[in-house]
Each structure stands twice: as C-alpha cells, then as structure tokens.
Amino acid sequence: MSDLSLKQSKELEQSSLAARLANIVLLALAVMTLSLINADSLLFPSSSVMTYLVVTAIVSLVCLCGFSIKTRLQANYVWAITFVALLLLGYSQTLELPTGDSAMLTSLWAQLFFISRPIALGLAIAASLGYLFHGVWRDTRLESHSHLLSLLAGTAFLGGEIAGSYWAFIGWGRSWSWSGHFFFSALTYLLFILVFHLPKAWFANARALAMGKAAVLGFICVLMLGYRLS
C-alpha cells in the first residue's frame, strides 16, 4: 500500500471516529435533556413541543448507532444528521418547559399517539438526508439504509394513527371525523406511502429517483415541524 493510500485510510479513520464520537456525545446530551424535562413528572409529557423536538433529535441520532462508516461520504452523512439534531436540540431550549398534562393524556394510547410523531419525524430526517447524499454522490449502502428508515417512519406514523384513533374512541366515543388535524394526518401518511410508489418512469435515472424520494421526505419533515411549531 502506498503512502498516499495509508494517509487516506488514516484520514478516513479519524473522520469516522470524530463523527461517531460527536454522534454519541450529542445523543447522551439529548437523552439527559429529555430526562430533565421529565424530572418533575411521572407522566411523560409527550404532547409538548419541547419534548417533540428533543425526541426527534434522539431518534435521528439513534438511526446512526447501527450504521457502520466505511467511506468519507458516509462520515459526512453522520455529521449532517448530527448537525440537524444539534439544531433541533438547541431550538428546543428556547421553548418553555411543559407544565403538565391533562387527565386525557394519562391514557397509554395518548402517549403512544404523541410519541409516534417525533419518532416518525426523526426517522424521516435521517432517511431524507440519506437519499439526498445517495442521489448526489451515489452510495448504495446509504440507499438501503434510507429505504429501511423510510419504511420504519411510515410504520411508526401509522401505529400512532391507530393508537390515536382508539384514544379518541375511548375519550369521545368516536375514532374519526374529518377536521384539520385528521386531514393533516391523512396527507402526511399518503406522502410516506408515496415515497415507495414514485414511478421510475418519471425520473431519468436512479440518482434522480433518489432525489425525488429525498424531496418527498424533506417536504414531510418541513410539514411536520411547521405544523407543531406554528
């Protein structure tokens, strides 16, 4: 192996180690932040916007824990997710702490409904950036990783819909009625499905298809964040 190859290998190892360390440190910080939010309440305040952002950051960081870094591109992907998680965590600290939940939120189904949203969003953020990196620089491992995360995001969102419908049924005697909230949920889930049903004929090549998936997932992320922060 030449000196240049050794140098490149060493630089990749250092970059991968630094990215992994940043990921772990920020994950630990986010978990600590979540525990402090919940310190004065036995009930997980999952309906609050602060918790929503912190859990989203945690989930996006957890998505990287089982992802082995083999190339500089993959290390940059880890850095990108870590940076987004840092922004979410930082913004959450500008919000007021949750003061407590109403009696209706003591239901397990309510907790499952609210926690499913940041879980789906964290997975979608990691998947969107993965497809974006794959679309620009071509990395099949990132494509496979993003495909799995997209599937998990849609599943988490659907699970939340089912839990929320049952929560509404036991609380108000009905599980569904068309309103702004339900229309938003239905639209979001349809977009999650669209990620897997984008016609290949619409795109010139596999890279363009990946960029299309990144755009749909990115729009979902903006939609979900804007809905909660507005």
**Average of the residue pLDDT scores:** 86
**What is the succession of H and E elements?**
HHHHHHH
Please count the beta strands (DSSP E, at least 2 residues each): 0
Q: Measured on Cα atoms, how large is the radius of gyration?
A: 19 Å
Instruction: Estimate the strand proportion.
Output: under 5%
Distance between the termini: 56 Å
Give the number of helices. 7
Percentage of residues assigned to helices: over 70%
Principal-axis shape equals flat
Largest sheet: none
Helix/strand-derived category reads mainly alpha
List segments where confidence is low: pLDDT < 50 over at least 5 consecutive residues.
none
Describe this structure in words.
- This protein is mainly α.
- The chain is 75% helix and 0% strand.
- 37% of the residues are buried.
